């Protein structure tokens, strides 16, 4: 392929702008979601209790990423990545159009289902095609993912500016703007996908068969036994009262258990019945630990749309002269930092690699999680000020978002790249799905955490934020400590 986009393959431009518009729609809508649900009926919101709204927020954002697993499977085995991206974008646009129509909570939920289903198709497969642009792998692929990541955040920055701005006048104008953003993404993809040549047209399984790669036989009997065991396990949890589906919070907690169990069973299935050789099994184990690290990181980072969004609304002075900034706009600081620093971080990895000083992926994960924890150190002190009865300045949240954003750059594009490199080719779409399931679990935890934030009582927030600090610092340190083992399992993958 010709080099036509910042010195990278021309196809990166198509994927960059498609993902930019998709993230405009997703993050723009996310910035107003929990605010719309908790706004009173007099304010044209849904008037849902914050604890229930937090659970619904967590279920939706978890569903967005959880559905990437079947989305990856469909692309790997049936559709191919290109069709999955196209159909996924159409479903997302339809979902936002439904949300733009004032109606009952049932219509609202239907719109969320469409958006989540479409994202499940689009999100893992567009990242897979980015990886396919760089068959040579290495630091250049990491740099390509960093540029791609800049597109993600360019879209989210403008989405988090325009959608909350319109929603301040009418909630449904905000949802409509998200639909328009996805329309532009679809149009751009359709017009420029020729730059991808043949990439993503065939399912990965078919590619391996055509290339004569020895594909291990999948053990269908064992797969059926594992599936049955999963059903029985979930039934026992319901019978014993460990999971409860009578409230949104209970459903969210149950889904959290289900995500963990399904992920463990999926990895067990791949390891035992997936036809992998010993080296592939070690690399899949590394993907599992990256999944754990991603879930830990996103459980703190994604507080931006839940607990930190509520903190911005109720405990932050957002006045600029005589104008009050909409609470959701503060989240755009994250995207702005990514836009400014993504090229710098990508350049840094390449320069360090040239001197054999590039940190291994597990070390980068540890650093990212620790930076997320430092962000909550800032919020711990901000919450103490709020608990004393004084609204804090916006700078507290902006500094938190800055630390979280640098942590995100250290972890997320590197994790995307590592997953494409470590995955057995016939499972690459599914492994990208697993990566996003980590984000799903993190989002769900973030929503449940927000449900514990009492907007009428600021005194309980310092302890809540401090709990995030503790687990983040310990988790990040563990990744750094166990780096030698994980590095060995990664083999020739850098």
Question: How would you characterize the overall build of this protein?
Answer:
This protein is mainly α and 494 residues long. The chain is 76% helix and 3% strand. The chain has helices at residues 11-38, 50-66, 68-79, 81-99, 105-132, 138-167, 171-192, 204-210, 220-239, 248-273, 278-301, 307-315, 332-354, 361-387, 394-422, 428-451, 461-481, 483-490; strands at residues 3-5, 8-9, 316-317, 319-320, 323-324, 392-393. The strands form three sheets. The chain has a two-stranded antiparallel sheet. Helix 1 (11-38) packs parallel to helix 6 and helix 6 crosses helix 15 (394-422). It is globular and about 60 Å long. The two termini are 23 Å apart.
Work out the radius of gyration.
Answer: 22 Å
Distance between the termini: 23 Å
**Inertia-based shape:** globular
Uncertain segments are none
Spatial strand arrangement across the major sheet: 1-2
| Structural class label | mainly alpha
- Total number of β-strand segments? 6
Binned, the helix content reads: over 70%
Order of helices and strands: EEHHHHHHHHHHHHEEEHHEHHHH
- The share of residues in extended strands comes to under 5%
Largest sheet, strands/sense/barrel: 2 strands, antiparallel
Give the overall pLDDT as a whole number: 86
Helix count, per DSSP? 18
């Amino acid at each position: 392929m010709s080099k036509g986009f910042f010195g990278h393959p021309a196809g990166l431009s198509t994927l960059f702008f498609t993902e930019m518009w998709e993230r405009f729609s997703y993050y723009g809508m996310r910035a107003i979601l929990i605010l719309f649900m908790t706004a009173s009926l007099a304010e044209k919101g849904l008037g849902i209790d914050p604890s229930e709204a937090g659970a619904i927020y967590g279920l939706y954002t978890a569903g967005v990423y959880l559905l990437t697993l079947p989305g990856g499977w469909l692309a790997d085995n049936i559709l191919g990545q290109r069709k999955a991206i196209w159909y996924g974008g159409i479903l997302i646009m339809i979902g936002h159009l439904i949300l733009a129509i004032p109606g009952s909570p049932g219509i609202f939920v239907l719109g969320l289902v469409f958006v989540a289903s479409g994202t499940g198709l689009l999100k893992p497969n567009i990242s897979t095609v980015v990886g396919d642009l760089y068959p040579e792998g290495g630091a250049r692929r990491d740099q390509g993912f960093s540029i791609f990541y800049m597109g993600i955040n360019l879209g989210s920055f403008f989405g988090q500016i325009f959608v909350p701005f319109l929603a301040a006048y009418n909630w449904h104008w905000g949802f409509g703007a998200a639909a328009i953003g996805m329309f532009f993404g679809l149009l751009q993809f359709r017009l420029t996908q020729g730059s991808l040549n043949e990439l993503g047209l065939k399912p990965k399984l078919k590619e391996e068969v055509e290339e004569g790669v020895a594909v291990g036989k999948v053990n269908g009997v064992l797969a059926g036994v594992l599936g049955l065991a999963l059903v029985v396990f979930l039934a026992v949890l319901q019978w014993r009262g460990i999971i409860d589906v009578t409230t949104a919070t209970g459903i969210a907690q149950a889904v959290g258990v289900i995500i963990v169990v399904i992920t463990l069973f999926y990895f067990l299935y791949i390891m035992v019945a997936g036809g992998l050789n010993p080296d592939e099994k070690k690399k899949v184990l590394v993907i599992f630990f990256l999944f754990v690290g991603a879930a830990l990181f996103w459980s703190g980072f994604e507080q931006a749309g839940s607990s930190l969004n509520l903190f911005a609304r109720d405990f932050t002075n957002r006045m600029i002269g005589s104008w009050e900034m909409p609470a959701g706009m503060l989240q755009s600081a994250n995207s702005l930092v990514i836009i400014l620093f993504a090229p710098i971080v990508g350049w840094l990895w390449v320069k360090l690699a040239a001197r054999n000083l590039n940190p291994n992926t597990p070390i980068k994960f540890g650093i990212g999680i620790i930076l997320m924890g430092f962000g909550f150190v800032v919020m711990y002190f901000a919450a103490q000020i709020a608990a004393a009865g004084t609204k804090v300045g916006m700078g507290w949240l902006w500094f938190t978002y800055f630390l979280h954003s640098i942590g995100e750059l250290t972890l997320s594009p590197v994790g995307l790249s590592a997953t494409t490199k470590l995955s057995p080719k016939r499972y690459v779409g599914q492994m990208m799905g697993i990566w996003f399931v980590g984000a799903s679990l993190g989002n769900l935890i973030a929503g449940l955490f927000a449900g514990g934030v009492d907007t009428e009582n600021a005194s309980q927030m310092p302890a809540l934020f401090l709990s995030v600090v503790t687990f983040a610092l310990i988790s990040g340190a563990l990744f750094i400590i166990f780096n030698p083992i994980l590095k060995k399992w990664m083999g020739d993958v850098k």
